[in-house]
Write a structure and sequence with these properties.
two-stranded antiparallel ribbon, about 5% strand, about 35% helix
Length: about 100
């Protein structure tokens, strides 16, 4: 697949990026380079390779899943500009 200057201009417009007409050939060349890298990645044999979330194997810290009420209502509401009866008070928005 090859990107021409017309397609590069269309992509720039969709991305809301202003590109001067004389810079479109360079942008098209960059797009073609990126597409070349993507094609190279498609050629890699990944059969039997486990997906990973990072490059180093790390064990996630786990904690017991215990439901609590947080017991911090006063601290949370201390930052509220207006709190009433233990809740955030907000202006009415629907008539």
């Amino acid at each position: 697949m090859s990107i021409d200057t017309e397609t590069a201009a269309k992509v720039a417009k969709l991305a809301r990026i202003r590109v001067e007409p004389d810079a479109l050939p360079a942008l098209a060349a960059e797009f073609n380079t990126i597409l070349g890298f993507i094609e190279q990645l498609g050629e890699v044999d990944v059969e039997g390779v486990e997906p990973m979330t990072g490059v180093t194997a790390q064990r996630l810290k786990r904690r017991e899943d215990v439901v609590t009420d947080g017991d911090q209502q006063d601290r949370v509401l201390a930052n509220a500009p207006d709190a009433r009866e233990g809740f955030f008070a907000v202006p009415k928005v629907v008539e």
